[in-house]
Structures are given as structure tokens and as C-alpha cells.
Design goal:
It is built from six helices and 16 strands. The strands form four sheets. Strands 1, 2, 3, 4, 5, 6, 14 and 16 form an eight-stranded mixed beta sheet that branches. Helices cover about 20% and strands about 25% of the residues. The protein has one domain: Clavaminate synthase-like (Double-stranded beta-helix), CATH 3.60.130.10. Helix 1 links the parallel strand 2 and strand 3. The longest helix is centred in the N-terminal third of the chain and has 14 residues.
């Protein structure tokens, strides 16, 4: 698998949750500093499974940040203010009475940034009795199952990812304000509002190619939105095929860590009037190529 090892782990245990991607990792307490050899196996598990899950983790904002810093610098969200005293941690809360949720479309985090987030960590503080699952999709498979003709067509095309507007015309601040109550939106710097990225991305660690598409892509470089829409629509729909996906059921204390360079995700809004409270940290990434 392009330099990755499938040898048994010495310090952790992994259990796949689906054929396409996703595994639970056992034998790790993320509230404590992890030795280098354990961190190396966690990294290997992430690269092999694309998204990994940990159960029964007693995390605080400080502990979450300490774990995240093992993977790089923190990527602060440019549109949403963090928690009081913790600007790098977002508290995402859908409470009884909220009609919208956060992340309720297929996307990859911070795609509108020149250097999108490498990874995202989401820890569950409160889960609804039922519902509120998150879907993940393997974008290696999304690319590899395209025809040779389609691969050739999109191999040199860049998509324009936009952060300050959704395709329905609402501003991102308006969408977020309607989505999650009780937070403050920010005025993002100009360079964080719109970025061109290749539709085919090469993973810097595995060397594998993946489809790089999502809800932030509005049009294709050097094309009008009308010209771009049929191809974007096809790729976006293709990237969500059920056989590319896994589904994670949240419980209080669960933590998910996913690789934004080769996955997309979708938070399902099926739990009114339940409450779902999460803490999120994103790790800085590099410029897609």
C-alpha cells in the first residue's frame, strides 16, 4: 500500500468498522502523553484507515490540544471564534430547538484555505440518545474508480474553493449563525476566503492520488459556474457512493481523528430535539499538489 505497512501493531489494536475506511483504535489513553513508539503506530493507523476512532476518552480542551500538537501546528478556524480561553478549540453544539447542524453537507475541512487543514479531531462531550452519526468517504477510492478518460480530463484542472459563501447564496457567517447557537462569527482575512486546488490531490505521505472535491468547490478555474456545474456535480455525487463510506455512532467520550487530505465527511442532522456537543481542533496542513 504505497509504503504503508499492514504488519500487526505492538502497542495498539485496531478494529475496522467498514470495508472502505475507518477503524477503532484500542489500548490508548489520549488524556496522557503518548510515547513516540505509540504515536508512530497511531499515525500508521490513520494512514492505513483514513479515519480512526477512540472510545471512552476523558478529554479537556488542554488535553485535546496536547494530543493535536503531536501532528503539527493548530489550524485556527477563520470564520468562527473558539471557546473562551481556548481560541484553537471550537465547541460545536446543536441543542434542543436548533433546526440546523454544523457540517451537514459532504465536505473536507478548510478547503478554502491556501493550506487546508491536514487533520481534524472531534471529541464528543454529549451525544443524543439516537442519531447524530457522522459519515466518512474514502477519496482514494473515489479517484481510483473513475474511468481513465475522466482521470485524464481532470488531471490538470483546479477547483475554486470558496469559504465565505455557500452555493445557495447565503454568506458562511449567516449559515453558521443559523446552524449553531451561542458562538461568535469572525471576519476572515482575504486569503482565507477563496483558493484554487487540484481536483486530483497526491497525498504527501502515502503517495496515493485522491479526488479532492466537496461542498466548498463553486466552479473550475478558467471556467464559468455554468460550464463548471455538470462536472462538479458528477464528481461530487460520485465521491459519496455508499461503497466508499463508513458511518460512526457517537457516544460521550468518543474521539474521531480524520485525514482531510483523502476523506470527506457529513454530519447527519437526524436527532431533534436531542443535544449534541462536540469539541473540535484542526491540524495545519500543506498546499495540495
Amino acid at each position: 500500500m504505497d509504503g504503508l505497512s499492514n504488519a500487526p501493531y505492538r502497542y495498539i489494536e485496531t478494529r475496522k468498522i467498514a470495508g472502505a475506511l475507518g477503524a477503532e483504535v484500542h489500548g490508548v489513553n489520549l488524556a496522557e502523553p503518548l510515547p513516540p513508539e505509540v504515536l508512530a503506530e497511531v499515525r500508521q493507523a490513520l494512514l492505513e484507515n483514513l479515519v480512526i476512532f477512540f472510545r471512552d476518552q476523558d478529554m479537556t480542551p488542554d488535553r485535546l490540544l496536547a494530543f493535536a500538537r503531536n501532528w503539527g501546528e493548530i489550524h485556527r478556524h477563520p470564520y468562527i471564534a473558539g471557546m473562551p480561553g481556548y481560541p484553537d478549540v471550537l465547541e460545536l453544539a446543536k441543542k434542543a430547538g436548533d433546526t440546523r447542524n454544523f457540517g451537514g453537507d459532504w465536505h473536507t475541512d478548510q478547503m478554502f484555505a491556501p493550506r487546508p487543514a491536514m487533520g481534524t479531531m472531534l471529541w464528543c462531550k454529549t451525544a443524543p440518545d439516537a442519531g447524530g452519526d457522522t459519515l466518512f468517504s474514502n477519496q482514494y477510492l473515489a479517484y481510483e474508480t473513475l474511468s481513465d478518460g475522466m482521470k485524464a480530463l481532470i488531471g490538470t484542472i483546479r477547483g475554486i474553493a470558496v469559504g465565505d459563501k455557500k452555493k445557495n447564496g447565503q454568506t458562511r457567517a449567516a449559515v453558521n449563525a443559523a446552524t449553531v447557537s451561542g458562538y461568535t462569527t469572525l471576519e476572515a482575512p482575504a486569503e482565507m476566503r477563496r483558493s484554487p486546488h487540484p481536483l486530483v490531490r497526491t497525498h504527501p505521505e502515502t503517495g496515493r492520488k485522491s479526488l479532492y472535491i466537496g461542498g466548498h468547490v463553486h466552479y473550475l478555474e478558467n471556467m464559468t459556474e455554468e460550464e463548471s456545474e455538470p462536472l462538479i456535480s458528477y464528481l461530487y455525487n460520485h465521491s459519496q457512493r455508499p461503497d466508499f463510506t463508513c458511518r460512526f455512532r457517537w457516544e460521550a467520550g468518543s474521539l474521531a481523528f480524520w485525514d482531510n487530505r483523502c476523506t470527506m465527511h457529513f454530519a447527519i442532522n437526524d436527532y431533534p430535539p436531542g443535544t449534541r456537543m462536540m469539541h473540535r481542533v484542526t491540524v495545519a496542513g500543506d498546499e495540495p499538489f
